[in-house]
Amino acid sequence: METIKLTIDNKEIDVPKGTTIQKAARELGIEIPTLCYMELHDLGIENKPAGCRICVAEVQGRRNLAPTCSTNCENGMVVKTHTPRVLNARRTVMEFILSDHPKDCLICPKSGDCELQTMAHRLGIRDIPGQEFAATSTYRKDTSPSIIRDLDKCILCRRCEMMCNDVQTVGALSAINRGFMATVAPAFEQNLEHSTCTYCGQCVAVCPTGALTEVNHVPSVLRALADPTKTVVVQTAPAVRVALGEEFGLAPGTIVTGKMTAALRALGFDYVFDTDFAADLTILEEGTELLDRLSRHLNGDTTARIPILTSCCPGWVNFFEKYFPDLKDVPSTAKSPQQMFGAIAKSYFAEKIGVNRKDMVVVSIMPCLAKKYECQREEFSVDGNPDVDYSISTRELAAFIKQANIDIKTLHDEDFDSPLGESTGASVIFGTTGGVIEAACRTAYEVYTGKKLERLDFTELRGMEGVRSATIDFNGLPVNIGIAHGLGNARKLLDDVRSGTSQFHAIEVMACPGGCIGGGGQPLHHGNSDVIRARAAALYAEDRSKPLRKSHENPFIVKLYEEFLEKPNSEKAHHLLHTHYFDKQKKIIIKH
Amino acid sequence: MSHIKIELRKEDVDFIKGVCTSFNNDPQELINVLHSCQEHFGYLPAEIQEVVSEGLNVPVAKIYGVVTFYSFFTMTPRGLHPISICLGTACYVRGAEKVLDEFKKELGIQVGESTKDNKFSLSSLRCVGACGLAPVVLVGDKTYGRVAPDDVKNILREYE
Ligand code: SF4
Ligand code: SF4
Ligand code: SF4
Ligand code: FES
Ligand code: FES
């Protein structure tokens, strides 16, 4: 590869051709500030509109300052990144951005974790001259079941647009208007709720400011906890335990399962349970469905649709309901673990402890914003009482713990309550791309072949590539597995399913890049994909540390079937643990 | 956002699909497709944008983004006498904005809107190449030069 020699801040460096000044500088340990630019290297995601001009530097011989995030290195270039001229330019850019930005940091949901706030601080802005002349644009606030859009705070970095269009191929958001009224919005400035949005939350995950945030359910949870007539039950998703620590200054990938459990108990939850229990249950339901469909298919039954698609990600469910409604009988009918948990908690468990479902409040802690919408879906309630009452994100839980003055770092590890807190290693890896299908393979293999699995780690299913495939040998029967994370990647596999050319027997889809560890409700990665990798590694480590690593070996799941559900895919299981999908495609009404 | 609910007839949909096909259903041709549609229908309501979205396989949000970015696209029907005021540099410097304000006041509408009786609609333009006559106003095909705010009433009277 051709190399380029240049000098940055009097230091010489060789870089491969095509390297930007910004990246070359970082190699030298020179941090040039960026705002609109964002990169998730491992996931192949990059936002480079060169719009904000915070990242400028002086290039000798050029009249204008160069945006370093989008200017490639050239041979013999001499770059200065922090000259007085550069600092002045950055200040001017920042003052311009701030002149049209609200100043209510005090009550902004992003305060303390906002890239714009950090930048203003870093550039030493204390005053914004010319304020009295600046026109401040105002937009109406838009609250959907999952996401709040407060576009007065938009700085038009267009990261959200890139995520929604290029990565997710949903296309719910686009830059609109020009000049001061320019912003990012759904078509016709409709509310997000009426757009094609899937609530994956990836726009929220990358927004540098308070323009896109999650709907905050902590106040409702607090009210339930303060109500003595309510039994409040909490469930925590697998991806939360490997990310929550980041909010308390712990390194990404630190496993805080025991501390999180202790904190939840300290917050006053009556029962601290684990969504992982429901993930094991999902494997039994979904795995049984897979084997049933597969064997019917192999016996020539044309009504058995293959491939089967996983259905545990509500962002993904929203996507196929809106874009591929013609395929709505292809995904598994199994509910997501969140909803399976709610259904069991408010039936089996409520009966066991003699509490009326109306007096039980089920709260979920999720890495996910789509779950907020999911738990409000009508089909997941009984006589108007939802199976899951509130879903709060990892970020919201962290804020809640801080609010209650709990020091998570000094808490002693505690265990989940029984019985809905018991889980296997298989359920833990649900939180990362490839994990659900690996967990399903562990169980399906043993059930199908009647043999004990020699090797539990299906490393061929792991990794961060957007689309992956592997063939697993089920004792002579080759089972073709497809995996996609990020909705744009899922779309590729779905197009093949639609056209009938798909070679897969089963496909796992997660809406978020990386899976739930990269979910829209997780601590912000601020464009560092190492964070996501560390979380994945932590989940696999937690899996290895578990004495039981196959869902069907979870003794409490076995007991649940014995006492209550009979067997996987029984009538009762179907009633409680399965769902159906709707055609939610937008249609143009044509008058003839 | 003001947006007029319309129902497209089958031949309208066929027309739009036809335009898309004539541009090979190429998303790169979005602006040209929108131009042709606006030429035919006079404006680009949401329903038309949705059909274009299907035809070119471009998200409707993107299309709305383009329609709101370029001032020559409009989402409201043009009046019988469309009035355009040049806001190019020369016209602007010579007081075009005051003229525009006067039109807004007289007609009781904003840029991009039309009067209730659909007689007049108001839009702004970039330099129309008649800078010598600045400020310039167009009503339909007719050009008015060196327009002052005081002239606005007289111009409108011509179309009574
Ligand atoms: S939540 Fe996902 S689908 Fe919805 S606007 Fe954001 S990125 Fe697009
Ligand atoms: S909403 Fe946020 S991510 Fe989107 S353009 Fe505005 S500031 Fe950037
Ligand atoms: S991948 Fe996980 S976090 Fe993302 S939408 Fe799906 S379930 Fe939610
Ligand atoms: S970070 Fe380079 S232009 Fe915005
Ligand atoms: S600026 Fe108005 S005609 Fe040129």
Structure description:
The complex is a heterodimer of chains A (592) and B (160). Chain A has 592 residues and is of the alpha/beta class. In chain A, strands 2-1-7-5-6 form a 5-stranded mixed beta sheet, sandwiched between helices. The model of chain A has no long low-confidence stretch (mean pLDDT 95). Chain B is an alpha+beta fold and 160 residues long. Chain B has 2 domains: 10-69; 81-157, Glutaredoxin (3-Layer(aba) Sandwich), CATH 3.40.30. Chain B has helices at residues 10-22, 30-41, 46-56, 60-69, 89-93, 96-107, 152-157; strands spanning 8-9, 81-86, 120-125, 137-139, 142-144. Chain B has a 4-stranded mixed beta sheet with strand order 3-2-4-5, covered by helices on one side. In chain B, a hairpin with a 2-residue loop joins β4 (137-139) and β5 (142-144). The relative contact order of chain B is 0.13. At the A-B interface, β10 and β23 of A face β1, α3 and α4 of B. The complex binds iron/sulfur cluster (3 copies) and FE2/S2 (inorganic) cluster (2 copies). One iron/sulfur cluster binds at residues 200, 313-316, 367-368, 370, 510-512, 515-516, 519 of chain A. One iron/sulfur cluster binds next to α4 of chain A.
